[in-house]
Design goal:
This protein has 206 residues and is mainly beta. The chain has one helix at residues 2-23; strands at 73-74, 81-84, 87-92, 95-99, 105-109, 121-122, 125-128, 132-140, 145-151, 157-159, 161-164, 171-179, 187-192, 197-201. It is 11% helix and 34% strand. A hairpin with a 6-residue loop joins strand 11 (161-164) and strand 12 (171-179).
Length: 206
């Protein structure tokens, strides 16, 4: 009988010890909220990804090489170009033609042997009135011509317009108008599209 009482007492003590944690305040165990566990089969939406920051290249907006777009106009053989008031200019395989204000015509040959077509060069003809001068010429010996600039005695410059026949024959014509007060002693410089000098024709004092 004594043995049965000891066993019952031990069981009662054990039950009392197990029941102690349940009597403690609930707040003692609420130090952190656990992440909710999704139900089986549920779809969990991922947080949207933040877009990456893209930096523009350090060279954006900078020009590394200075070039001039070619202003050479391609014209058909015999096509008339209004070069100045009362003046027309046109090209044929034989050379440059231009009209004068009085109805006359002039011609500069590129096939008569007077131009050395094996090297870059430029020619210059001038005519005009008391108010203005019409300048024109032939550039030749190169397919890289892109710009012709006239320079007067005072250092003023005028950029000419260029024309050539289809197929880049290696020559073409240029023309420009300047005030007569500037004189007719303009120098002429032929450039390529990168600004390099291809040929020069010095000016002279009037």
């Amino acid at each position: 009988m004594t043995r049965m009482k000891k066993y019952a007492l031990a069981v009662s003590v054990t039950a009392a010890l197990v029941a102690v944690p349940a009597a403690l305040p609930t707040a003692a165990f609420a130090t952190a909220s656990p992440e909710p566990v999704p139900a089986p089969g549920a779809t969990v939406a991922a947080a949207p990804a933040q877009p990456a920051t893209v930096k523009a290249p350090a060279t954006a907006g900078k020009t590394t090489a200075k070039t001039h777009a070619s202003p050479v106009r391609v014209v058909a053989p015999g096509e008339r170009v209004k070069a100045a008031p009362g003046v027309e200019l046109w090209l044929t395989p034989e050379g440059k033609h231009w009209s004068t204000g009085d109805g006359g015509e002039n011609f500069r040959s590129v096939v008569d042997g007077n131009l050395d077509m094996s090297a870059p060069g430029v020619s210059h003809q001038t005519e005009g009135t008391a108010k203005r001068l019409f300048h024109s010429g032939v550039w030749y010996g190169t397919k890289a011509a892109a710009r012709v600039v006239l320079t007067d005695a005072a250092g003023g410059t005028t950029t000419a317009k260029l024309v050539e026949l289809p197929g880049k024959p290696g020559w073409g014509a240029w023309y420009a108008t300047t005030p007569a007060a500037a004189g007719d002693g303009h120098g002429v410089t032929l450039y390529d599209r990168h600004g390099r000098v291809l040929a020069e024709l010095p000016g002279f004092d009037r």
